[in-house]
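User: Before I run my own analysis I want an independent prediction to cross-check against. Here's the chain; please return only the structure tokens and, at the end, one sentence I can use as a sanity check.
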Amino acid sequence: MNYQIELRHFIYFLAVAEELHYRKAAEKLFISQPGLSTQIKQMEEILQTQLFVRDKKKVSLTPAGEFLKGEVEFILNHLEQTQKQLKLIGDGHSGEIRIGFLGSAMQNVVPKLLLDMKKKYPLVHTSLEELSNKAQISAIFRDKLDLGFVRLARVPKGLKIKPVFEDTFSLVLPKDYPLDEKGFKGIHQVSQDDFILFSQDYSPLYYDTVMSICEDGGFTPNVSHKSVHAQTIFKLVENNLGIAIIPTALQYGFQMEVKFIELKKIKQRAILSAVWKEDNRNPALQNCIDLLLKE
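Assistant: Structure tokens:
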């Protein structure tokens, strides 16, 4: 009997690939476990390729299965987004731009872009999600985001990256710390303090840049705490659990017992960049990028 690959095969495959457990995948799909096993075997027969390695203890993906998992995630995400775009267009909109961002981008770049979009393209819907650099890159590749705002020096092949905002760094100190802007001569003055930094996994470029700022001051900082949220970092500083270095724009919008000293004389700068996939087919994306990069 001749069979053809159907959408249900991809859905069933992805459920097993994510769970790596037939019973759990079947429960997730609301079908029987034997029925699911039959569908996966049928799929492997049609493709003439083994997708899973099965034994009594575990299920794992073959190299072909790993490749197919990434492709199916992209296909299903794209289908979902196509349906969403169609619904928006049917309701009188001109589609949607899905934007990922780091918290610091919300201080100036993202709000300005949203206002410009609303003014020039009022029928384009926008959605926002705060994510780490790594999560944004992954989401853009999987067609879950159209545009991201990251702090990265480079991105993988297939993506485009453009700097959109250059910021200075600022030192964050407890309100009663015995050092102010007038008495500040250099970062070496805080070399004995504990430092609170954004997690290296959240933003590797930021982490490495802060380390280089300290190293230029003649010391390696003792990092006592890490976080992915500016508010958490400020709260730790407020409670005298350490000091921090942050992009200057992040100081606005928080009401805490901390003070800031801008590091104007150092060479390092906090660069925020826009990133998107070169072959993204969302017709509204180019208009968004043109607004973002306009002179």
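Sanity check: The mean pLDDT is 89.
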